[in-house]
Design a protein that fits this description.
Length: 441
């Protein structure tokens, strides 16, 4: 298939159009600046088959045509989703395509397509951009699954090597990228779990100077940061987190240039097409219904995270939150973020040892009823985990130390259920009890 912009279709066809030429799809307006909520509101709204305000779910695995010649033309790449021609739902599906349009609008990219998980989105992008023997430069501080993919799986299966760097050391990043060899600079906008903020504009400038594609995982900061508007080429998401908001769906997304997304769906060479991390149409429908209130949820997550981080610091705890003025990346984040959405919904409390971290979480869940001990994030309840022994457990001790992950680092995804004061009272009660029992011991 060519670079026809299938993923941005804005017009539906009539069945009588089977004999017409394909042509390039009309591209939706790219919102390169401004509020991502405004971009979402400007995206195409898909109505239901019978005029419903919500779209219909296209649950078909395969699609029919009116004329035999049409199928040959679809497989030849002459007709595609830009004209509402579909072959098979492992390729393009209309319902998944609609969610993908919303993701492209959210991130201000030309195109997007959604996948069955965040890891499938990440792996597919890297495999599409890197060939056998390729080279990646990546942040030392990454989600454990991504780190394992780069440090173990890709070297073994594809001879794709990765140089891990301190993402805040621009000179180190620049030196690690080798022009003509390095294909991808991979980073997280806000790192998991240390909440380090990446200087996306400057990192993108350095990478582009050497012909390197910048891929940013924006899972921790949807609405808060817009990496593509700041210079990144590709944005990936674990939609399972904030975007879903319900801790009930596993999903991912690749947002970027139409040429990349279409190449990933190519019938002969596409990583998404051939590896098959297909999103179910019913899942895509549910997620399409949640994105419109993502902005409201992110504002509340961020507001509470800032309030709790500020108050916890006054109680004497070692709190890490980029919204606090003493965070080393506070001014950087302030210069890049979409200000209406705050500084994100995650905070960390460094208890220094795993034993003390576990005591804190035990008190917060079982005495304060403040939240749940669970991995993941973006839920309406607060979720907390000791990162070193959970979501970053794929890193060895040396790698954790280089990444700045303390053994007692408690990552907390702040929820918005109940009132702020009600939840603060639960949090304060648990910490007071912990401090009292600590003094007795």
């Amino acid at each position: 298939m060519g670079d026809t912009t299938f993923v941005l279709a804005t017009q539906k066809r009539n069945r009588s159009d089977d004999a017409d030429g394909g042509g390039e799809a009309k591209k939706q307006t790219l919102h390169t600046s401004g509020d991502p909520a405004a971009a979402l509101a400007s995206a195409r709204h898909e109505f239901g088959e019978h005029g419903g305000v919500n779209m219909s779910i296209e649950a078909s695995a395969t699609f029919t045509v009116m004329e035999p010649e049409t199928m040959r033309r679809m497989f030849a790449g002459e007709l595609g989703p830009d004209r509402d021609f579909f072959i098979y739902s492992r390729h393009f599906n209309p319902t998944v395509l609609n969610l993908s349009r919303l993701m492209a609008a959210l991130e201000g990219t030309e195109a997007a397509y959604c996948t069955a998980s965040g890891m499938s989105a990440i792996a597919s992008v890297l495999l599409q951009l890197c060939s056998h023997g390729g080279h990646v430069v990546a942040s030392r501080t990454l989600y454990g699954g991504t780190h394992a993919l780069l440090s173990h799986f890709l070297p073994r299966t594809c001879d794709i090597s990765t140089s891990f760097v301190e993402i805040g050391d621009l000179e180190m990043v620049d030196e690690a990228m080798v022009e003509g060899k390095t294909k991808v600079l991979y980073l997280e906008s806000v790192s998991n779990p240390t909440l380090t903020v990446a200087n996306i504009p400057e990192l993108s400038r350095l990478a582009h100077r050497k012909g390197v594609t910048v891929v940013v995982d924006n899972t921790f900061a949807p609405m808060v940061l817009s990496p593509a508007r700041l210079g990144a080429d590709v944005v990936v998401h674990s939609i399972s987190k904030f975007i879903s908001g319900g801790a009930d769906i596993i999903a991912g997304a690749v947002c970027g240039p139409a040429s990349l997304v279409n190449s990933m769906m190519d019938l002969q060479q596409g990583a998404l097409m051939l590896l098959g991390p297909t999103m179910n149409a019913k899942v895509a429908f549910e997620l399409s219904e949640r994105i419109p209130h993502l902005g409201l949820r992110m504002k509340e997550h961020s507001q509470r995270a800032l309030a709790f981080a500020t108050r916890l610091k006054k109680l004497g705890l070692k709190v890490i939150y980029p919204g606090l003025e003493d965070h080393p990346n506070h001014q950087l984040l302030k210069s890049m973020h979409n200000k209406d959405y705050g500084y994100g919904g995650l905070i960390c409390i460094d208890m220094e040892t795993e034993e003390r971290a576990n005591k804190l979480m035990n008190h917060l869940q079982n005495y304060g009823q403040f939240g749940f001990m669970a991995v993941s994030l973006g839920y309406y309840e607060t979720l907390m985990s000791c990162s070193g022994s959970s979501t970053s457990s794929e890193l060895n001790s040396e790698e954790k130390a280089l990444a700045g992950i303390s053994p007692g680092l408690v990552r907390m995804s702040i929820g918005y259920i109940g009132t702020l004061e009600q939840k603060w009272n639960q949090l304060e009660k648990a910490i007071t009890r912990l401090q009292e029992t600590g003094h007795k011991n």
